[in-house]
Description:
Blueprint: H1 3-12, H2 19-23, E1 27-36, E2 48-49, E3 54-56, E4 63-75, E5 78-97, H3 98-101, E6 115-121, E7 137-142, E8 149-151, E9 167-176, H4 190-200, E10 209-211, H5 222-230, H6 241-251, E11 254-261, E12 275-281, H7 282-286, E13 293-298
Antiparallel strand pairs: 1-9, 1-10, 2-5, 3-8, 4-5, 5-6, 6-7, 10-11, 11-12, 12-13
Amino acid sequence: MDIEELKSRLETNGLGHCFDKLKLHVRNSIRLHLNATDENCMAVGRTKIGGRPDLPKDIPWVTETNIKVSREKKFFFFYSKKKETITKPLSFIAQINLSEVSPFDQDGLLPQTGILYFFYTSDQDAWGYSHKDKNRFKIIYWDGDFSELRRIDFPKDLPVYSRFNPCSVDVKSEISLPSHEHEIYNSLSDVDKDIFWEKIKGDDELINKLLGYSDNIQDEMEIDCEHLYNWPGNNIVNYNAKKAAIFRSEVAKWRLLLQIDSDETSEMMWGDCGRLYFWVKKEAMLNKQFDKTWFFLQCY
């Protein structure tokens, strides 16, 4: 949907009077429509969801490292702790060829060249609401000679359910409207809200996309991005007034980078028909600092 289609749909459904309010909050996004594909027919370095990544020679398959602590009983009530380092491969989620998608980036937020790689824990049990989850996802930005890329096989210890079907992607520019918690909808009457969510912005379809607003299944995530990325171990309600003001001013800087839906085409299922959301601050995105990111999983 573009801005003119939004206006037309609002007018058709008797909500033309809402257009001026809503258009102030519109963001541009890049829609990704998935197509089941024979990976052997895909050129190395193309945008894809699932399958096997095309990585440069100096970047191995990404892993997560966790410390497992167990207790061993010595005698009576005395125990000793044993620490074990466990390294496991992450699941490959997507690679985005930026030269392919940048023509659809209406605001010029993404780099025009290079590849973004997205990985997430193969256990699929990290939700992003703990600072400990920082080791369980990874975004890599690479901008080099494509002749260095090679398609690598799945690690032998990566579970079968964590190996997703390869999908090519059709790319389209769209506009994006805030999710249901946004304050803009408080200005609409109850009747207008019902019509809007039924006729204009239903959230029941598959939505894979770059940029724009997140299509939330649960609550807004920006405040949690700031909390978990910059204030680990703190409780938001315990901030003093000065720190709270800084915190709130930073929340608005977070932007959705990539949203990946549960989808039969890719055979990705996140919780109970949920979505993965990868986030980054606007300034970090413009500076190509994609290591400064956070993620969430939300489901029904």
